[in-house]
Amino acid sequence: MTKRYCSVAILGATVAMALSMGCFADDAKTEITFWNGFTGGDRPTLEALVKEYNETNDKNIQVNMDIMPWDSLYQKLSTTLAVGQGPDIVAMAPERMGAYAQSGAFMPLDDAWEDGTIDADAVPEALKESLVYDGSYYGVPMDYATLLLFYNKDIFKEAGLDPESPPTTWDELEADAQQIVDKTDKYGFTMALKDTTPMWCIMVWGNGGDYIVDGKPVLNSEENIETITRWAEDIRDKGFGPADLTGGDIDKLFQSQKLAMYFCGPWAATGFTADGINFGIAQAPKGPKSQVTQGNGTGLYRTTSSAEDHKEAVYDFFKWWNSKEAQTEWCVNTGFAPTRTDISLDSLSENPFVGEFSKPLNESKMYLQNLTNFADIDTQVIIPAFEKILLQGEDVKATLDEANEALGMMLNQ
Predict the structure, then answer these.
(1) What does the buried/exposed string (b/e) look like for 369-406 if buried means 16 or more CB atoms within 10 Å of the residue's CB?
(2) 145: which strand partners?
(3) CA distance 342 to 74
(4) Helix 43-56 and helix 311-321, axial crossing angle in degrees, nearest 10
(5) Going from the N-terminus, what domains does the chain have, and what CATH number goes with each?
């Protein structure tokens, strides 16, 4: 065989091999990376859904997911994003988004909300607003949770209360908690203060108060003084429950059946069921001004480490994750409320809790959003103010005046 024909034959064999292996550019997979911290009970559902996407999408996209503890995730991001080696997609709580958006580590995603990738009209307002920083969207929804009132039916019976009639107003909540304290050796109601999903904000909002309005601190408003005085006296002075609990502490108190009522999210329902606790869930009791609860969620963000030719794949995954079908599967298996308000509760009925958690989607608010120093404000201003009031008996107005001044200084940094 001559040299020329030998070369042609080798080339032909190489082409045939490439075709058989799918090595041409048209057939090559687009591989994108996705980092998150879903190490808990929702991990198997997330893994199953990502596997489903990889096997069924028609664009030959492969999502390579890396799951790690949240603290490890944030530490890893701090080193990789700075040198352009972060993932295409990262999941995290929206309150942390501002710092990454401000530093340029996350890409604006306005076009995803405008081109139909995300159905903006279907997203709960609180979740939608939480994904905006400085006038632009920097995230799209991943999940959403609301807090409801968990109550122990056996303790209700012991106290002479109807276990099928949980409190629906603040007045009823106070009366039921007082009766439980008076007639049993259990705590009636309390709220965790730190290292937790926020609970006190439910009361603040229910009486028409807030922490920040239009970028200005309003921690010492008349509404807040009234609210915090009322519930501090209930918890601290009337002995409704311990005043300075972490999220883990309050979960254990309810799990050990020493606490009758508290606010929590859908992630707790499966565990309490497995523990054999006879509990119910109800909407957050209505305050003097409104019935509102705390919402918290996770956003999906595209980092500036993501290559430009990965954009189509990233947006395709965003769209699929927020589809009715994917959200229904996620919610039924995890108990989270959907990221869409147009999903029928009947389609979620397989999970006995998710429908109830989905009801207040449009009556929920998110805590301290769109900030770049969320953690500092929460841990250095708000929590210490509550501790002074609840643990040291400090004057509510004076304490909130001082905290409001400190909050204003932090907002201006």
Answers:
(1) bbbbebeebbeebbbebbbbbbeeebebeebbebbbeb
(2) 296
(3) 33
(4) 120
(5) 29-146+296-362 (3.40.190.10), 148-295+368-411 (3.40.190.10)
Q: Name which of 78-82, 222-226, 300-304, 349-353 the model is least confident about.
A: 349-353
Closest CA to 230 of 185, 287, 166, 299: 287
The span from the CA of 277 to the CA of 295, in Å, is 25
pLDDT of residue 267: 86
- Nearest CA to 340 out of 78, 136, 128 is that of 128
Contact between 170 and 285 (Cβ < 8 Å): yes
Dist. CA 73–CA 79, nearest whole Å: 10
Residues linked to residue 263 through DSSP beta bridges, in sequence order: 149
Global pTM value = 0.84
Cα separation values, 126 from 52, 289, 370, Å: 29, 18, 12
In Å, what is the CA distance from 40 to each residue of 5, 43, 67, 69? 61, 6, 10, 9
The yes-or-no verdict on residue 4 having pLDDT over 50 is no
| Residue 283 φ then ψ, to 5° | -65, 150
